[in-house]
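Can't paste images in this forum, so I'm doing it all in text. The chain is below; anyone willing to post the predicted structure tokens underneath?
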Amino acid sequence: MYEYAGAIHIHSTYSDGTGSVQHIAECANETNLDYIILTDHNNIQARTDGFEKWFNNTMMIVGYEINDLQNRNHYLVMGLDELVGAFEVLDNGELGCKLSAKEYVSEIKKRGGIGFLAHPFEKRSSFPEHPPYPWTEWDTEDFDGIEIWNHMSEWVEGLNENNKVQRFIHPLKSIVAPDPKSVKIWDEMNLKRRVSAVGCVDAHAHKMSLMGFYNVEIFPYKVLFKSIRTHVLLDEEIKKGNAENFPEYKTAIVNALRNGRSFIANFYHGNAKGFRFFAEYDGLKYQMGDEIEVVQNKKVKFSVYVPSQCKVKLVHNGNVLIEESGMGGLWEFGEDGCYRVECWNGDSGWIFSNHIRVKKV
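Text version of the structure:
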């Protein structure tokens, strides 16, 4: 397997971000990201203008973030070269899709696109100018996955008068772990079907006032790119800088995200490259995102490798089966259901894998 780490959910000056695409790409290179996915609001002009390409060693993939006319139900779209639906200008000057969330999720899937619910359980009140945008249209199952970890959401939701200065000065220290509610519901969804998880930065490079200083940039792209990353595992190697095979590489990364052949890590707590979670059954190996059909009374062997010492948890259907310190583990279980791994450094979450599903036949 070949591993590539990237940052997802990024906004540029094509929508409400403060940085140019060129600047964003430079920051991605400086922080050694293999790929980044630009998701400007209802906008793929960056692709039209030729920015979907290699920037030195970093792939720039252009997707978009779509929302409805109430500016709710934000949805990250990848793998489509077109916007879905018609749009109109909202009261705040932004655009909204005339289709309902259920309609655009369905249409995106029909056209071969891939989508993730953006900050689906968001709740915050610290900045009235940046209200929460939770997902409300739960009567659809056409989405491929969800954000279970969003840097911007966690930072704002934990903000109060006592920690405001500290959070402004050190925007990475305050990111602890995905919202337990998000993780719980994600686990429950996977009992019915595969729902892949991604971790995102939601980067805008916002500028805010702090202690009498105006337009202080508290979320520089370069800083956020050292935060939450999503690592994909591919069968084929990506030859960096190879423009001819760029479409093939892009498809491989996006499909890995859709299929859950990926894991989420907070780079601030350590470089997670080298983490592996896989299963072995009947002479075959299975990766994250796979489903294993198991004969009654037979067991599956689960293996975990971690690049440094941490607390490792094996989770089954949302419940912790094993918790031990080390750099990995090897366990056998025969129960059907969904298995995944969490790695913690003290009280801070580090790595969260996608599920391997076991089905008795």
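The first helix runs from residue 21 to 30. The longest strand covers residues 300-316.
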